[in-house]
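Render this sequence as a predicted structure.
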Amino acid sequence: MREDMIKLTSINRIDTFWVNEDQIESLKETPDTILSMISGRKIPVAETAEEVVRIIESAREKPLIVYGGTDPDDMNEA
C-alpha cells in the first residue's frame, strides 16, 4: 500500500497540512474545493480540484526512493 502524502493549503490560504492521497475518495468544488475522505471527513482546501489532481499526479510520478544501509541484525554480528 502506498503511503504518499501530499501538501495542501487550508481554506484560509495561510496554513498548510499533509494528507494521504490514497485516502481521498472524491473532490468537489462548491465553489470551494472539498476533499471527501474515505473516513467520511470533509476537508476544505484552497487549491482547485484541478490543482489537487496535478499535485497527486506529480507525487505519483516521483520514483520510490530505496536506499541501502546496514541491516541492524548484521551490526550485532560484527
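Summary. Residues 49-61 form the longest helix (13 residues). The two ends are 34 Å apart (CA to CA).
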